[in-house]
Specification:
Elements (H helix, E strand, L loop, with lengths): L1 H16 L3 E4 L10 E3 L7 H8 L5 E6 L6 H9 L2 E4 L7 H12 L3 E4 L13 H9 L3 E7 L4 H5 L4 E5 L13 H22 L9
Helix pairs in contact: 4-5
GO molecular function: acyltransferase activity
Pfam family, one: Acyltransferase
Protein name: 1-acyl-sn-glycerol-3-phosphate acyltransferase
Length: 204
Amino acid sequence: MFYKIIRPIVRFIVWVLNGHLHVHHKDRLPKGNYILVAPHRTWWEPLLFALGASPMEFMFMAKIELFKNPVLRFILNHAHAFPVDRKNPGPSALKVPVKGLRKGELSLIIFPSGTRHSAELKGGALVISKMSKKPMVPVVYQGPLSFKGLLKRKPMEVNFGNPITIDKKTKLTHENEQIIYKQLEDAWDKLDKELDPNFHYVAK
């Protein structure tokens, strides 16, 4: 219920601050729930992806430090966020989203690189996808990377790609992980070029 209440509020805030959110190829989203997988470019991407893919509701990974504030903890818990210790992730970082995905009610947004300034892909998204038997949907964001740029009302673009499914017989060996990573990277590159052939991400 809280998620449904806060979503239009977030949509209104985004509209007031910027007013130029454009969503592309929503028709590529599969039926049922799934895992949105994106390169991390700015902190407000999860909000835009969730708005773009509504009415689907999403789980989010959030760093455990955010849950120390009681008010923020209440909001995060009721917005389907769950805590992850980035230094020592532990099994819950995989078990919680897998369990949620298997129930079939919520989808997941995940950034395999972990942080906004890392190009290194981590294997969590692949493990979650295989264990939950849910497809990964590549998605990219292009637009302002700073709050100042956001207020200048420069267009914000979200582009969804075609689902990538990991066959249940596929073992997640290092070699197979690299093959799937390449699929994701190629998909992101294609989505970026669909929006702007000259796009090049530069970390701020």
